[in-house]
UniProtKB/TrEMBL annotation:
Coiled-coil intervals: none
GO biological process: cobalamin biosynthetic process; methylation; siroheme biosynthetic process
Occurrences of domain Tetrapyrrole methylase (ranges): 12-221
InterPro entries assigned: 4pyrrol_Mease, 4pyrrol_Methylase_sf, 4pyrrole_Mease_sub1, 4pyrrole_Mease_sub2, CobA/CysG_C, Siro_Cobalamin_biosynth, Uropor_MeTrfase_CS
Protein name as annotated: uroporphyrinogen-III C-methyltransferase
C-alpha cells in the first residue's frame, strides 16, 4: 500500500482535520499529509503555523468562510479541489476541527468520488473536544451527564428545528456557530422546556491566543454574549457539567456590579 510520502502516490485529495487552533493538536498523520502536499486548500481560521508545515513550494489557496461572507461557494470549492487533483497533485483540503463535524467534509468527499478520484479523510480534534478540554469542562460525567449532542446554531428556520430532549438534566448540548443567534437559541431552549437557570458556557477562541471560557445561566446567555462582546469562533455548552469547568462566572460578576451600582 502506498504511503503519504510516496512521491508516486499523487493525484488524490486528503481531507485533513486541523483541530480547533493549536498546532500541537494535529495528528501525526495530518502532519505527514501536509508535508507531502502539492496544494493546500484551507479554511480561513487555520493557524499560520499549521500552514507552514507544508512545503514552501506547495500552493496555498484560502477558501475562507465567514457568516454571510464566503470567498467561494461550496460548489466552487468542490470544483477547485477536483481540478487540482486532475493535474496529478496531492491536494490537502485543510479544515478546522474535524472534517466530518459541521465541516461540510461529506459534501467534498461526495464531489471527489463523483469525479472518480481517490480521497482520504484524516480526522481532527473537534472544536467541542479541544475547547472543552482546555476549559476543564467534561462533556460527559457519571454524576451529571450520560449523553452529549452537537447541533449547529447557524441554521435556517432555527425556531422550527426540533431540539427537544437534547438539553436538560443529565444531558449536555454543544452548539457550534451559535454566537450570532445566542439570544434566539436561549429562547428556543427555554420554550422547549429547558430551565432558565440551566448553566451555560461560551468557549471563545478555544486553544488559540486570547481564548476565553465564560459561563452564566441560560436566561442570561444572549445578554452575556452581547455585553462581553463575544466573537467567533466560539461554541456554547449547555448543561450541568458547565459548573465543573474553569469558566469564569460572568453572571455573578455582573450581579455584583449591579448591586454596587444600586448601593
Amino acid at each position: 500500500m502506498a504511503t503519504l510520502l510516496d512521491p508516486h502516490n499523487r493525484g488524490r485529495v486528503i481531507l485533513v482535520g486541523a483541530g480547533p487552533g493549536d498546532p500541537g493538536l494535529l495528528t501525526i498523520r495530518a502532519v505527514e499529509a501536509l508535508k507531502a502536499a502539492d496544494v493546500v486548500v484551507h479554511d480561513g481560521l487555520i493557524d499560520p503555523r499549521v500552514l507552514d508545515i507544508a512545503p514552501t513550494t506547495a500552493q496555498r489557496i484560502s477558501v475562507a468562510k465567514r457568516r454571510a461572507q464566503h470567498t467561494l461557494p461550496q460548489e466552487a470549492i468542490n470544483a477547485l479541489i477536483v481540478a487540482h487533483v486532475r493535474t496529478g497533485s496531492l491536494v490537502v483540503r485543510l479544515k478546522g476541527g474535524d472534517p466530518f463535524i459541521f465541516g461540510r467534509g461529506g459534501e467534498e468527499v461526495e464531489a471527489v468520488r463523483a469525479a472518480g478520484l481517490p480521497v482520504e479523510v484524516i480526522p481532527g480534534v473537534s472544536a467541542a473536544l479541544g475547547c472543552a478540554a482546555e476549559a476543564m469542562l467534561p462533556l460527559t460525567h457519571r454524576d451529571h451527564s450520560s449523553a452529549v449532542s452537537f447541533v449547529a446554531g447557524q441554521c435556517k428556520g432555527l425556531s422550527e428545528q426540533d431540539w427537544s430532549g437534547l438539553a436538560g438534566q443529565g444531558r449536555t448540548l454543544v452548539i457550534y456557530m451559535g454566537v450570532a443567534t445566542a439570544a434566539a437559541i436561549a429562547d428556543k431552549l427555554m420554550a422547549d422546556g429547558v430551565a432558565p437557570d440551566m448553566p451555560v458556557a461560551v468557549l471563545e477562541r478555544g486553544t488559540q491566543p486570547g481564548h476565553r471560557a465564560i459561563r452564566t445561566l441560560l436566561a442570561d446567555l444572549g445578554a452575556m454574549v452581547e455585553r462581553e462582546r463575544v466573537g467567533s469562533p466560539a461554541i456554547i455548552v449547555v448543561g450541568e457539567v458547565v459548573l465543573l469547568s474553569d469558566a469564569e462566572d460572568k453572571l455573578a460578576r455582573w450581579a455584583r456590579i449591579a448591586e454596587e451600582s444600586a448601593a
